[in-house]
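Task 17 of the worksheet. Students: predict the tertiary structure of the chain below and write it out as structure tokens. Keep your answer in the requested format; marks are given for formatting as well as content.
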Amino acid sequence: MAGLFFYWGTYILVGARMYFESFPLLVLMTARGIVKTPLIVSRWAGPPSRVPVKGLLAGLLVLFTLFAFAFTFPRWVKPARTKSYYEVLTADFYGVSRRINDTIVRLPLGRSLVIMKFLYTPRRYFPHAWWASGFLCNDPGLRNRIIYAQDRGAANIEHLRCHPDRDIYLFVGTLEKGLLAPLKAESGRLMAQEPILFQAPDADLIELVGTPEELFNNYSDDFRRHIEAACAEHPFYELDVGRLVELSKEREARGDTAAAASCLEAALQVENDPFVRSQLLGQLAVLYRRRGDRPDARRIEAALADLYEPRVYDVFPEKGF
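Model answer:
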């Protein structure tokens, strides 16, 4: 446990490994320390009867415990100024959530395989990690009514060949909202059919929308028009953060600064990684200034002013990012 502490520090990944198992031993050692410490202190401070060491230690232990649970612990599991899946431990830690599966299993589907395609930027050292929300719910023998698979792009047809007895669906979206479309094989390719709609009754489930435009927060008519144009030009499963950034550069090269800004705004509405968000916000500030929107540009610059702790979430809540 000491080696783990010096290797990882206080960073938690995949649960409190070793600390949970060691907790009973730590409690016993703490109690033993409270009993033995007065005897040690009495060697240089007098007999234990004249030095209330045991009571003092117990009081300090209670005080530190209350401070830890009332002050430190809440700020550790849910730190301020961030919504990063890597830092907030209270919900969707590390980008894994059961809400997608809990939503899909409610649908009247038969034996099905759901291919998962998320809009987020792939993680640097684990680019296929986003589909863990589905992998988590797969049984070892893949015999459940609903099973999940990683998106493989054009090679998704291989999923159908491996599971000919199952209906194939494609989930595209985020941990909060998605589009679920049946796939049918046509001329050796999987073609998307009419999406399945689902309105989430509470926060334990997610909304399933009918059009790719609904995956974004269409806060204005101009924004909606630009996103509808992008969706008309590209298949809905291609409009992830990476593609939106490319579209922004293409629009900017054509001189359409407003459309370029809308593409970055759409990317910021779905992206969660704080480092990527800071880069997108910096690019968006430049576009805002080019189109003469100086107040919004200054708003972003103020949010990014602190190089060590930039504010990259809820910069424009009225715009969905």
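Marker's comment: The two ends are 40 Å apart (CA to CA). The chain has a mean pLDDT of 89.
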